[in-house]
Amino acid sequence: MELNCPVPISRYNKVVLGHGGGGKLSGDLIEGLMIKELGNDMLNVLHDGAIFESAGKLAFSTDSFVVNPIFFPGGDIGELAVYGTVNDISCCGATPLYLSLSLIIEEGLPMDDLRKIIVSVRNAAKISGVKIITGDTKVVEKGKGDKIFINTSGVGSVISGVTVSPDSCKPGDMILLNGYIGDHGIAIISSREGIQFETTVESDCAPLNTLVADICNICPSVRVFRDPTRGGVASALNEISKASGYGIRIFEREIPVRDEVRGACEILGFDPLYVANEGKLIVIVPGEDADRVLEVMKKNPGGGDSAIIGEVTGDKTGVRMETVIGSSRIVDMISGEQLPRIC
Amino acid sequence: MELNCPVPISRYNKVVLGHGGGGKLSGDLIEGLMIKELGNDMLNVLHDGAIFESAGKLAFSTDSFVVNPIFFPGGDIGELAVYGTVNDISCCGATPLYLSLSLIIEEGLPMDDLRKIIVSVRNAAKISGVKIITGDTKVVEKGKGDKIFINTSGVGSVISGVTVSPDSCKPGDMILLNGYIGDHGIAIISSREGIQFETTVESDCAPLNTLVADICNICPSVRVFRDPTRGGVASALNEISKASGYGIRIFEREIPVRDEVRGACEILGFDPLYVANEGKLIVIVPGEDADRVLEVMKKNPGGGDSAIIGEVTGDKTGVRMETVIGSSRIVDMISGEQLPRIC
C-alpha cells in the first residue's frame, strides 16, 4: 500500500479486490469517489436501487463499453459510456433522464485513472442533462479483465407524438446525417496503434439529445433516428433497409468525411462508411420535411456540418451508393469485425 | 472454424471477436441465439432501446456479474444475473417488470456454454415474470476478460402504499430472514477450489419477488427489504444500522445455517454471517407485525425456513450478536474481500 494518492479516496493508489467486496473498502470507494463526484438526491440513498416517478412511454436501453484504450484523443471510456446510452435513448425519440453506472475494474487500475473516468462520467451526465441514480462496482483479478469495462443503462421519456421505428420508412423519405463520419474509430485506432497523422483526429464522442429534441420539435413525423456506432453508417443503413423492406440510395459526394480520416482509411484499408462513430446521427424524415429539418440541424451545436445524404427508394436492392465517379455500388453489411473494442 | 456445433447458431462453435462487431456475425448471434431464446414482442423490435408504458413510481437497479466459475452447483451466471437484479428491484418494494441484458464475452467462449447461459437467463426470467427487452453483446480478446461477464439492469413498479428504506427502522422493529445463509458463497468456493464435502452445498440462487409481494400484501408498513449478497448478512445489517442510526441485536441460535456450511466455514476460516447469498431476504417490520409476516413468509416456497433473527434497538452500538454460549459480540462490517467474484 502506497500513500502518494493525491486525494485520499482511501489509502490506496490502486484498485484492489476488496474495493469490490461489499465491505468497508467498497463503502470507502463508493462514498469517497462515486457519491462525492456523482452524488445527487436520488443516488445518495444507497439503496439496492433508485426510485423515480414515471408517466407515459419510457425508453430503456443498455450498453457495455470495452473501448481500448480507455483514454483517447477527444474522450475517454467514462464520457463514451454516458453519451453511448444517452444517444441510444435519444434514438428512440426520447429525452434521456436517468442512467445506471456499473463498473468492472481490473485489480491494479490506478486510482487516479478511475477518478478521471468518474469525473468524465459526471461531466458528460451534466452536459446531457441526465442523473446517475444507481450503480455497482465489481473488481476482478489482474489478467481477468482489461483496466475497466463500464455498463450504462438508462431510461428516457418518449417525446410526445413521436414514434420512430426503422420499419416506418417509406419511398421518398430523405436521409440526413449530422456531420463528419469515422472520427471516433480513427481516433481510437490511431491512439491504440500509435499511428501519427499530420493533425490528430479526435473522437466525435458527443450527446445527441438536444439535436433529437430540435428535430422532434419541428418534425414529429420523423421516421428514424439511428446512431451509427459499431459497423458505421453502412451497417446502420443496412439494418434500416432490412427492417423497412425498402432500398436506400446514398450519395458519396454528400457524405462528410475529413481528409485525415479518408487518408487514414486508405492506409489502413478501411472504408469510412464502416468506421464507428459516437455522436453521429442518421435521421430519416418524410421528403417534404427534409429541408426544414436540415436547417434546424445545422443550427444545433451538434449539427453544423449536417447534410442530406440519401433517400429511401421503392426497390428491394438494399443499400446502394452513387459514387463520386458516377458509378453505383452495393454497400453491404460488414461481415465480422473491422476494428474490435471501438466502444 | 469447426462445424460440430450441435445447433448452427452460426457456423462457429466458439465466440469470435466478430460476434461483437456490429455486422453480419453479430446479427447472426442476436437472431440465432438471443432472439430465438429470449424473444418477445418488445425485444424483437431490435431498436437501439425498448419502449414501455409506465405510470407511478418505478424502481431502477443495475448489477454486473463476474462470478467464477460461471457454472456452479445450483446455478450459473445467467440465472444469477437475472435473479440478482430481480432481487434488487424486489428489495425496493417493487414488482420487477423489465430487464436489460448486456454481455461481455471473452473470445473463445464455447458457443454451447453461451447457449446454456442464455437458456438459463430465459428460464430465470420466465420464473420471475420479467421480460428481457433490450440488450448488448461485446466480445473482448482472449486474456482480456474471463469467459463471460453479464450486466443486467431492470425496472420495476413500486408496490402501491409501500415505502421501504433502511433509515426508516425504529427501535422495537423485528428482523426476519427467509432461510439458511451462506449456501451460495460456499457452493461457489467449493466448486472453484475443488473442495469436496459429504453432501454438495448448492447455491440458494432464487428470485425473491413473490416473497416480497406476499409480505407487502399483509404488511404495507414493512420498513426494509435487503438481500444480503456480497458481504453477507453481517454487512447488510451494518449498512441498515448505519443508515437508521439505531442498533441491531441478532440471536445466533435463530440464524439458520446448514451443518455443511458451518463445517466448510470452519475449515476455510469464514464466518457464515459474512458469506454471500443470492436468494436470501432480510425483512424488517414493526414489532407487532412480525408474527403475521413470519407466518406468510413460511408459506411462500422461498421462505419455508424463515425465522425472526433479531430486533432494532434504541442504542447506537451497531450490530451485536447474542451467541449460542450466552455472550454478546460486535458484528462489524467486513473490511476487504472475503471471497472475490462471488456474484
Overview of the structural elements:
Two copies of one chain form a homodimer. Chain A has helices spanning 24-38, 77-90, 111-128, 183-193, 209-218, 232-244, 259-268, 290-299, and strands at residues 50-65, 71-72, 75-76, 94-106, 131-140, 148-158, 174-177, 224-226, 247-251, 282-285, 307-313, 319-322, 328-330. Chain A has eight helices and 13 strands. The longest helix of chain A has 18 residues, at 111-128. The first copy, chain A, is globular, with a radius of gyration of 21 Å. In chain A, a hairpin with a 2-residue loop joins β2 and β3. The first copy, chain A, has two domains: 9-158, 60s Ribosomal Protein L30, Chain: A; 174-330, Alpha-Beta Complex (Phosphoribosyl-aminoimidazole Synthetase, Chain A, domain 2), CATH 3.90.650.10. With 343 residues, chain A is of the alpha+beta class. Mean pLDDT of chain A is 93; it is low at 1-7. At the A-B interface, α1, β1, α2, β4 and β5 of A face α1, β1, α2, β4 and β5 of B.
Determine the most extensive contact between two protein chains: A-B, 84 and 84 residues
According to CATH, the fold-level topology of the largest domain in chain A is Phosphoribosyl-aminoimidazole Synthetase, Chain A, domain 2
**Low-pLDDT ranges of chain A:** 1-7
| DSSP helix fraction of chain A | 25-40%
Q: Element order, helices and strands of chain A?
A: HEEEHEHEEEHHEHEHEHEEE
* Total beta-strand segments of chain A: 13
The major beta sheet of chain A can be summarized as: 7 strands, mixed
What is the number of helices of chain A? 8
Oligomerization: homodimer
What is the number of domains of chain A? Answer: 2
Give the CATH level 1 class of the largest domain in chain A. Alpha Beta
Strand numbers in spatial order across the main sheet of chain A: 8-10-7-11-9-12-13
Strand content of chain A: 15-25%
Radius of gyration of chain A, whole Å: 21 Å
CATH homologous superfamily caption of the largest domain in chain A: PurM-like C-terminal domain
CATH architecture of the largest domain in chain A: Alpha-Beta Complex
What is the terminal separation of chain A in angstroms?
A: 33 Å
